[in-house]
Specification:
Blueprint: E1 5-13, H1 18-29, E2 34-39, H2 42-47, E3 56-62, H3 72-78, H4 84-95, E4 99-103, H5 114-120, E5 122-123, E6 135-141, E7 153-157, E8 164-165, E9 170-176, E10 184-192, E11 195-200, H6 206-210, H7 212-225
Parallel strand pairs: 1-2, 1-3, 3-4, 4-11
Antiparallel strand pairs: 5-8, 6-7, 6-9, 9-10, 10-11
Amino acid sequence: MTAARQNLILVGGIFHDFHTSAEALAAVLAPLGIESRIEADLDAGIASLADNPVDLLTVNALRWEMIGEKYDPYRETEAYSPPSKTRMAIEAHLHAGGALLGLHTASICFSDWPEWGSFLGGRWVWGTSWHPQPETVSVVPDKNNVLADLPPFAVHDELYTDLLLESGTQVLAHGHSAAMPTPQPIVWSHTVGAGRVIYDALGHDSQSLQHPSHAELLRETVKWALGEADPQ
């Protein structure tokens, strides 16, 4: 029997029920033979990779410096900067050929670590990036990539807008909505050394992740990240 693939899901932060959405993601990926472990202590989770390496590392969290008056009530308990050991371990995971999945707020995480956006393939830019309130988002997979056979679909979610993409990032799907009719790149792939990275800007809640077409999108992209599918 083939051993199950291991996935570590890092969770935590404000304004989202990350643990519930992580459980939904674990159920979505289970048919691929992936076993997921959910960890709210980011540094402890990353440190565990030294003795218990995983095939897939998932960041489903909103952990950053929390600069700005809006976040004054949360900063003391929620502000986060990844220590050097955590940064080095994430980079080592990727360069060793490990896969990385960033969901939704992952593009906001680790705001004082410039390399994070380079690893993820793009990032949120304060003062430029934004999103409308949750509404119906039309998702259109691009042709000639791992999602080419997935038809367009609509899901209730937040549409992240004006994200900054890195050179070499391959956009896999665009999204648009009533409040943002201009198509936005919302799913992309990226490589870091031998590691493969997927970012999905959707995933505001578990209902979005459990949407049948969104779930299929996640499975197809994760298969590519794990080296089980060709991006073309």
